Amino acid sequence: MNRDTYTDRIHPVVYFLAFSLFAMGSAEFLMGGILPLIAADLHITLPQAGTLISAFAMGALIGAPPFAILTLHWSRRGTLFASQMAFIVATAFSLLAHDYWLILICRFAMGLAYACFWAIAAAVAVELSPADRRAKALSVVVSGLTAAMVAGGPAGTFISDLTGWRGGFWAVVVTSVISAVAGALAFPGKEMNDVPLPDIKSELRAMKRPALWLAYATTAATTAAYMGTFGYLGALLLEVSGVAMDWVPAILTLFGVGAFVGLTIGGRTADGHPFSTLLCGIIGLVSVSAAIALLASYSTPVIVLVFLLGVAGFLVNPAVWSRVYAIAPDAPMLAGATNSSAFQGGLMCAPLLAGLPISLGYGLWTIGWVGAAIGVIAFGFVMLDARLSRS
Question: I want to staple 371 with a disulfide (CB 3.0 to 4.6 A). Which of 112, 229, 231, 309 is the partner?
Answer without folding.
Answer: 229
